[in-house]
Design a protein that fits this description.
By secondary structure, the protein is of the alpha+beta class. The protein folds into 2 domains: 20-246 and 356-389, no CATH class; 249-354 and 418-535, Gamma-glutamyltranspeptidase, small (S) subunit (Glutamine Phosphoribosylpyrophosphate, subunit 1, domain 1). 35% of the residues lie in helices and 19% in strands. It contains 19 helices and 21 strands. It has a 7-stranded antiparallel β-sheet. Strands 7-4-3-11-10-2-21 form a 7-stranded antiparallel β-sheet, covered by helices on one side. Helix 13 packs across helix 16. The chain is globular, with a radius of gyration of 22 Å. The two termini are 23 Å apart. The model has no long low-confidence stretch (mean pLDDT 94).
Length: 536
């Protein structure tokens, strides 16, 4: 890959990190170090990723938890494998049941948007298929941090305080008591540098490790979840948990200027990034800081998102296939709509026929792109008392319109925002990449890939580069260090440009690239969070 490792035109001026024996990149230094410790104990990249992911549920609970979902792209022995560990809606839920309770839209918080959690199953399945060390060893760092505590880092404290301030005003009914007991035990959010621990979280992680997650889906933890939902009038049941299995899936890709960009297929939104890149493939992109480049990027993303939001849902319920959405014919049709002015996107008709991200690599050539999330920060606000199990609110993305592609149905998987990415060239791994952050994720993937391939930026510079974020219609947010002259030129083309002073909505990503000749790893991590790379 033609990368300029000395080109640092962006704000942080940080260098890429290099290593030979192993590397773990994520948003929390303690979690990255936990993964590295597992590598040094003889584990591989997959073991390191599981250790890092489990530790992140403890040291960054503002973004993920044991009760969330996960996706992974795993490179082992020259082959890329995809794991979909997102869970379906409970079997007893329905549009009619929610409307009978007075809901015209899916609620954001509480019991109703909780779907079957996939995170514990992801750890167990990745360990079973590709791990070298037992789960009891791999989860030790996470258990230790939960039991003994750790001091809060600055960005973590910021989001924790923001959540507490909101929740104390809105979470006033009994089902939310577990959240305050777990995450605000002193009647407030913990401060920067203050030590927080959770004995219940530690015991839950230990139970998951000792049973390979069986206790979560069929044992004591499943019983506790089931009892809580029965007590408070929720739909999730022990039967839903017992019936759940994660799915190994075939990753999908597009070839972008000689590189294959890989994503998990729907129900994830990774296909949105691929559709945008497919549209952009037809343009001659030369200069990064150009109004023409940014205009085309934004317009391509609008079109891809409008199609993704219309068609992406549980793959068994989709009316069109991923292949149709990624066809050259469809990309050409959508590309033809891009002119000089900002457009208002509408879905096309294809031809018929709150999240944490981590990347890990080892000296054997194994690499993993892994992402897990509770959604919208802490998720549903539901914590099963005494367990540390903070449950997701993924069901919020379901529609209660029965004619909508992503309409709520019993046992159905919803449109999912979290997406891991992977890059290969000529059948060889380049490496894992990802940018967390709700609907920013496909936008971050597209920008990072173009920064790498089109503009030859190294992993750190590719992440540090100022970002834009399409919101809706013609509204586009840009970071404060986004080039002012470009923002003004975009506004003259009809884009409604707004400078966002809080950078939290622009995603937080990591990258690890591997030199196929030397095996040397080069990595980057975000300055937008407490990001860290642990390398060996």
């Amino acid at each position: 890959m033609n990368i300029d490792y000395l080109n640092y035109p962006y704000a942080s001026q940080r260098m890429a990190t290099f290593a030979k024996n192993g590397m773990v990149a994520t948003s929390q230094p303690l979690a990255a170090q936990a993964g590295l410790d597992i590598l040094k104990k003889g584990g591989n990249a997959i073991d390191a990723a599981i250790a890092t992911a489990a530790t992140l549920t403890v040291v960054e609970p503002t973004s993920n938890g044991i009760g969330g979902d996960a996706f992974a792209l795993v490179w082992v022995k020259g082959e890329l494998h995809g794991l979909n560990a997102s869970g379906p809606a409970p079997k007893s839920i329905s549009i009619d049941a929610l409307k009978s309770r007075g809901h015209e839209k899916m609620p954001t918080h509480g019991l109703l948007p909780v779907t079957v959690p996939g995170v514990p199953s992801a750890w167990a399945e990745l360990s079973r298929r590709f791990g070298k060390l037992p789960l009891t060893e791999v989860l030790k760092p996470a258990i230790q941090y939960a039991e003994e505590g750790y001091p809060l880092s600055p960005v973590l404290s910021k989001y924790w305080k923001a959540a507490y301030a909101k929740y104390k005003e809105t979470f006033t009914t009994p089902e939310f008591k577990g959240w305050f007991d777990t995450f605000a035990p002193e009647g407030r959010a913990p401060e920067i540098g203050e030590v927080w621990s959770s004995e219940g979280h530690a015991n839950t992680l230990r139970s998951i490790a000792e049973t390979n997650a069986e206790s979560f889906y069929k044992g004591e933890l499943a019983d506790k979840i089931d009892a809580f939902f029965k007590e408070h009038g929720g739909f999730l049941s022990k039967e839903d948990l017992a019936d759940y299995k994660p799915q190994w899936v075939q990753p999908i890709s597009v070839n972008y200027r000689g590189y294959d960009v890989w994503e998990i297929p729907p129900n994830g939104q990774g296909i949105v990034a691929l559709m945008a890149l497919n549209i952009l493939n037809g343009f001659d992109i030369k200069e990064k800081e150009s109004v023409e480049t940014y205009h085309k990027q934004i317009e391509a993303m609008k079109l891809a998102f409008s199609d993704g939001k219309k068609y992406v849902t549980d793959p068994e319920k989709m009316s069109v296939s991923a292949a149709q959405l990624l066809s050259e014919e469809f990309a050409a049709e959508r590309r033809s709509l891009i002119g000089d002015e900002a457009l208002t996107p509408e879905p096309g008709t294809p031809p018929r026929g709150g999240t944490v991200y981590l990347a890990a690599a080892d000296s054997e050539g194994n690499m993993i792109s892994y992402i897990q999330s509770n959604y919208m920060g802490f998720g549903s606000g539901i914590v099963i008392p005494g367990t540390g199990i903070s449950l997701q609110n993924r069901g919020h993305d379901f529609s209660l319109d029965p004619t909508h592609e992503n309409a709520l149905e019993p046992g159905k998987k919803t449109y999912h925002t979290i997406i891991p990415g992977f890059l290969t060239k000529d059948g060889e791994a380049v490496g894992p990449f990802g940018v967390m952050g709700g609907y920013m994720q496909p936008q971050g993937h597209t920008q990072v890939i173009m920064n790498t391939i089109d503009f030859h930026l190294n992993p750190q510079a590719a992440l540090d580069s100022p970002r834009w974020q399409w919101i809706e219609d013609k509204k586009v947010l840009v970071e404060p260090n986004f080039p002012t002259h470009v923002a003004q030129a975009l506004a003259r083309r009809g884009h409604q440009i707004q400078v966002a002073l809080d950078g939290g909505s622009f995603g937080r990503g990591q990258i690890i690239w591997r030199d196929p000749k030397t095996g040397v790893l080069s990595g980057g991590t975000e300055a937008r969070t407490d990001g860290s790379i642990a390398s060996w």
